[in-house]
Amino acid sequence: MTRTQRIRCRMAVIAGTMILVLISAVVSVPAYAFWSVSTVSPSSGAASAASVNPGSAPTLTVTKNNIRVSWAATTLSNGVGVSGYIVTRYSAENIAQVSLTGCSGVIASISCLESNVPDGLWTYTVTPKFATNWIGAPSAGSASVRSDATAPINSVSLTDKSGGGSFLTGSTLYFRGAIAGAFRLTNTLTDVGGSGPASSSTASLGSAADWTHAPSAVSTPAGGPFVSNSFSWIAGAVTEPTIAINGLDNAGNSAAAPVIQLRLDNTGPTGGAISYAGSYTTASSVFATVQAVADAGAGTTPGGTRTLQRATALLSGNACGSFSAFADHVTNPAVAPATQALTVVPGTCYKYQYVVTDNVGNQTTTTSPNVVRARNYQTIVGATPGIQSHWRLADTGTVADDIGPANNDGTYFGAPTLSQSGAIVGDLNTAVVFDGINDYASVPRQISTDFSIEFWFKANPQSNGRNTPKFWYDGAGLVDADVSGVAGDFGVSLTKQGNVAAGTGNPDVTVLSNKVVDDNAWHHVVMTRTQSTGIVQLFVDGTFEGSVTGGTQALTGPVSIDFGRTQATRNYFAGSLDEIAIYTSVLSAATVRDHNFSGR
Asked: What pLDDT does 28 receive?
């Protein structure tokens, strides 16, 4: 080579180098191509460009939160291998992350293991690099993988319960060993943001001879919930083994559920005493009080485990018939101790009991010896055989309304005071007050043979009747059908001495009460007449006061019956009258007592 050729060659190298420096100064990395210079003789000097090929899309293998990234080797366009690779991880939002130990920096090999990757969904790219500044295009992104180092969460519940009861609370599972039974355990495994539930397993119960369970590892349905094999026990089981449950997610993370301890519970709740008044009532409801209950085992819960039950029987007079079996009446009554209003129907007897069942089926029943006898005076009178008329005297106008089957309305005369407090306890029905001067009511007579007259009255002392009573018509008329002279008539009055008088005419006969009743208190009076014997009976406050024998003819003399006066002698009554009833039958002593008691 001549001196001139050597100079030209050097100048070419220098020029090429300057071009590369200028390119490096103007174009920032990454650079995909570079210049190579050839000085092979006899060249006068030459330069050629080579590029870095793009990276290959990596494949990923994940174990919990360790991700292995593998890819194919990359070369330059002239076949020369690259120096290394830059591995980049991206979040689900396509945000580049800082590579962790194992895949950071420039990787000389074609795989790396990134450890302790945070839980999440990731993709990777691989970028080849040559020498110091020459970088190829990044690879396409890998398929997404999820790193998951968090164990799933167990949520265990009972299902398929049968036979003796079972109840899970926390990590304690109560069972009623007196009766054979079975259950399964459902694990509703959750793995939010993780790889998802994979399976749930149960272990053997060991040497518990009165229990049977085949260990299970359940992986269907995909994602759960996973239902175990059956756990069953024989009648009379007493052993209390433990149950181990383990949940597994798709990344291989496992979590042991709290060990379930089986506990025998054959004992019913305690407490729950029931109390209510054992008496007659005219109200539409009675009140029962139940006391609190406690349970040292499975416990009790509201919503059907507490029941107020009742048995019923027909009320006939004062006697209850045969009681029915107890049946549910109020489910889940007011939380004890509390009072519960219970509806009753007149003419019915009631007994109540409180039944409390714990969560495994043990039952405790508390009873009371008390019996409720429900009465309603109007209903009882209306149901009495032979009822013809019933004037409740709850009127607001001039008509005395008969609610009985005869519908025998009457008329008020004078100006009696209406809508006054009535005789029947617990009944808002009102009464009439007569002034003893000119107040009375009159109704057509519709009885003459066998009959009973029933009513309630209240009077002040010595305000009625004549001084020396001989017959009923000498008193102040209460319910009277007297006519002048010898006639077939009848009536009931109050004497000046405070006795009740009842009698019939032709011949005139009268029976007086033994007790004095003009004491400003309500009293119940019944007069009966039997045509075939002529016998007249008098009852006051449910007690038989005496009888007398009169004529046996039909008592058809009067046209009407007056309330509050005697018709012929015009002896007016000063006081209150209520609940006048007339029957075409002779009431028995038992019925009279029953009616008297019903009003009180």
From this structure: 39
User: Residue 425: CB partners within 8 Å, gap ≥ 6?
Assistant: 282, 599, 600
Within its chain, how far is the Cα of 576 from the centroid?
50
Question: Taking the CB of residue 102, how many other CB atoms lie within 10 A of it?
Answer: 17
Query: What gap in Å lies between CA 298 and CA 358, rounded to an integer?
Result: 6
Q: 96: which 2 tokens?
A: 């580049």
Cα 553-555-561 angle, rounded to 5 deg: 170
| Gap between the Cα atoms of 194 and 249, Å rounded | 8
Strands 260-264, 172-175: pairing is parallel
Cβ atoms of 499 and 517 within 8 Å: the answer is yes
Cα–Cα dist 312/196, whole Å: 59
Specify the higher pLDDT residue, 339 or 261.
Answer: 261
> What pLDDT shows up at residue 463?
65
Strand partners, 280: 373
- Parallel, antiparallel or unpaired: strands 197-202 and 172-175: unpaired
Paired with 521 in beta bridges are none
Check if the beta carbon of residue 370 is closer than 8 Å to that of residue 286: no
Residue 368 corresponds to which tokens in the numbers above?
A: 């009371």
Distance, in Å, from the CA atom of 69 to the CA atom of 194, rounded to the nearest integer, reads: 20
Q: What DSSP state is assigned to residue 540?
A: E
**What Å distances lie between residue 318 and 259, 314, 315, CA to CA?**
62, 10, 7
**Global pTM exceeds 0.70:** no
The residue type at 101 = T
pLDDT band at 302 (very low <50, low <70, confident <90, very high): low
Do 492 and 501 contact (CB within 8 A), yes or no? yes
Helix (H/G/I), strand (E/B), else coil: 239: coil
Mean pLDDT of the chain: 90
450-484 pLDDT, tens digit each: 999 999 999 988 666 655 678 999 999 999 999 99
Q: What are phi and psi of 210, to 5 degrees?
A: -95, 10
Instruction: Identify the bridge partners of residue 185 per DSSP, sorted by sequence position.
Output: 158
Distances, alpha carbon 536 to alpha carbons 381, 468, 531, 539, in Å = 21, 22, 9, 10
Question: How far apart are alpha carbons 94 and 86 in whole angstroms?
Answer: 17
